[in-house]
Amino acid sequence: MSNSYRYVDPDYTYIDSKSGVLKNLADITDSQDLLFFESVTVTKRINELHNNPIKINGIESLFSIHQHLFQDIYGWAGKKRLVEISKDGKQFFPTSHFENAFNFIDTLIESFKNTKRDNSHEIAEKLAEILDNVNYLHPFRDGNGRAQREFLRMLALEKGMSLNLNPPDDKNVYERYMKGTVNSDVKILKELIFELIS
């Protein structure tokens, strides 16, 4: 699975021009050290969200989740990106049209909230559609996957369901999740979510 992201950031808005590492609150300039620091602090913050979940009120709740997860690491935690991002030649949603996307995703969330709890297939289908659109939006410079997985987990929780899109040591789930999100394959995402929700 390729991981070739490209960022249009000629002004070094997010990257330290000398080290090439994301500017961070800890002033870490080694990419491996930052990766370790990020992993430890985000894991701690995820555990906090498991104990005190955020109520999903719309797309703004995704920003609250991102801010919570990355508050110790980045000054731009919880803020929409100011640069364009593409992966493997496919561009994510352009920043100039974010407001339209936010409104559309809010309608998807509202539709999900109106779904009956006993209809697991419809819940999985609506969650897959939300995930696909949130992933295409990719509103943050970094940490989109972790924030959106927590976002989906909390949406499922509001229906009294458990959903873990990042189970430890389950390569199959991760590969299917990546295939579904990278290729915008809602069918794969729906099947995966349906299998995982309980």
UniProtKB/TrEMBL annotation:
Its EC number is 2.7.7.108. InterPro entries: Fido, Fido-like_dom_sf. Keywords: ATP-binding, Nucleotide-binding, Nucleotidyltransferase, Transferase. Gene3D superfamilies: Fido-like domain (1.10.3290.10). Residues 57-195 form the Fido domain. This is protein adenylyltransferase. GO terms for biological process: regulation of cell division. The keyword Transferase applies. It catalyses: L-tyrosyl-[protein] + ATP = O-(5'-adenylyl)-L-tyrosyl-[protein] + diphosphate; L-threonyl-[protein] + ATP = 3-O-(5'-adenylyl)-L-threonyl-[protein] + diphosphate. One of its GO terms (molecular function) is AMPylase activity. It comes from the Bacteria. Transmembrane segments: none annotated. It comes from Psychroflexus salis. The keyword Nucleotidyltransferase applies. Pfam families: Fic. SUPFAM superfamilies: Fic-like. PANTHER family: PROTEIN ADENYLYLTRANSFERASE FIC-RELATED (PTHR39560).
